[in-house]
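User: Predict structure, ligand Broken Fe4S4 cluster.
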Amino acid sequence: MSDERNGCSSCNTITGASTKDLLNQDLAKQVRTAYDRIDSRGMSSCLFGSSGTCCKVCNMGPCQIIDGVDSMVGVCGATADTVTARNFARIIAAGTAAHADHAREMVRGFIATAKGETPHEIKDVQKLHVMAEVFGIVTEGRDKNEIALELGNKALAEFGQQDGLLTMIKRAPKKQQAIWEKLGVEPRGIDREVVETMHRTHMGVDQEYRNIMLQSSRCALADGWGASMLSTELTDIMFGTPVPRRAIVDLGVLKGDHVNVTVHGHEPLLAEALCLAAEDAEILALVKKVGAKGLNLAGVCCTGNEILMRRGIPVAGSFIQQEMVLATGAVEAMVVDVQCVMPSVAQIVKGKHTDIITTNYRAKMPDAIHIQFEEHDAMGSAKKILIKAINNFKKRGDYYIPVDQKIDVVVGFSHETINYMLGGRFRQSYRPLNDNIINGRIKGVAAMVGCEHYKYADDVHFKIAVELLKNNVLILATGCAAQALGRRGLMRPEAAAEYCGAGLAEVCETVGMPPVLHVGSCVDNSRLLIALSEMVKEGGLGESIGDLPACGTAPLWMSEKAVAIGQYFVASGANVVFQNLPVTGAKAFNKYLLEGMKEEYGACWDYEEDPVKLAHKMIKAIDEKREALGINKKQDRVLFDMGMRRDLTTGHAGIPGVGCGQK
Ligand code: MSK
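Assistant: Predicted complex:
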């Protein structure tokens, strides 16, 4: 790769066929990507920054701290443990803030929908009733919009709440709640926990790393069981809870003879409006007028995941591919909102026909054009954006689409879907999953979540997944990690036979599901919390999430949100292994994260750079839980007879063309 692309040595980390293919085209060789910038920076990351020991919280510094060296504490006397814990806590607060602000927008959109002020409607009435019960809302004799309005207002109040507990905390297993109560980490209000974390990590406030981390847990729990869960559940009610569907991903989903519009960011309100506007007669007429065969909407990053899960709209690229999507020269507009949008995208399209359109007042960008998305005039905003894109079609110059690079995936595994996929539509239950874990066909469950970046080879997710599947670990994936696994073919039901150990393969083949289940975007990690809670409730696998044979990873984490997610998983009882963490410069704090937290929460952090070793750390963590549950003995392999197969498949999700052939 390096010789072919102007000596870019970072390009050696690229293994993805579509990216390789594209970057070797003459057209794309002129495009400067993150790989080139890594090369031209010519320096490795700052050691103090990457080990967590650079303190910038006051103007006496910045102070670089060396643990154990008296002359290298901060000017104020701050030790490596204090500084590193404060920095780690601030990452968690920033990640939580991002999820929370996104969630607030979704709740506001939900309220507007309940009032009839948007083109959307309350779609999943069953889930509305489930959430109404959680929030203690009377449903009998009330119209769906009336219930939704009360739910929306109660949800919105959780952001500014000052005392008491966040409502959805009670969805966790009782033992988990007791652990939080004992530690004093139950979140009171979403915004309050972010603010308090920022205050306590200000110069001269909280200086004891364990105490700082107690607040960090409270903040992260406000994300997982508060903000993110609100966003997921209310979005499902408004746009529909995902169900399994076939779709395609990768750069090859772009179409040469269509107007290509990519939607990038996180908030599905805009993306859903664009989907509706794309079917509008005025828009279709304009598409025809400019000589295009149609309008091709495609997703990027987590907005991509949202419309992929709910509508089967193809995903052109994940975080790491956002520049490649534009380097094709085939995109008329990239419409962006908030989070994970690289500033470089506006530079890549300079002098080209593509528009980068920012749509959120919070997220503007030099050299982009801004069309504010107004939720009260969602269709008007969406049509304005599409018209701008369509008018660019005729200006398109040379382009290259790696047309062969599109991969089939089956997506749409909400926790409700997993319920009936395994339990049957008429007997929704996690029982078969628990039973298969107890009898050893499935060793345990792994969450593969989070981002991608350029420090390591782009096949890290795949290598970890292959190792887990070989060892009969079922994978639930979200975010850009999910897209990376989809691009490598692991979200096809056929992948079970290719990659899984005998036990997991048998279960997947019987049910007709892929061995890696796409569960959604980064806020949808809250689905995993509910799935794990349901497994506990079902019985036989202990009394808390901390007892379950489950483990999480966000190996190629890039965003602060991934650390907030990691922290709420650990605080909820699930072990988490990353490839690296900015904590290694502080011995005592590091030991607390890797060991001490286990005594408090029943789970802890870990890190490992090598993907195969990382997978084995996860497997070891799962095995330890199995051992503690007394289910780690080798069981005789029992082949499914027809009765057992029927039991598992009755009323299964019915993915067209997916399954063992039984109806
Ligand atoms: S978009 S937070 S790169 S998963 Fe959610 Fe992807 Fe990570 Fe952004």
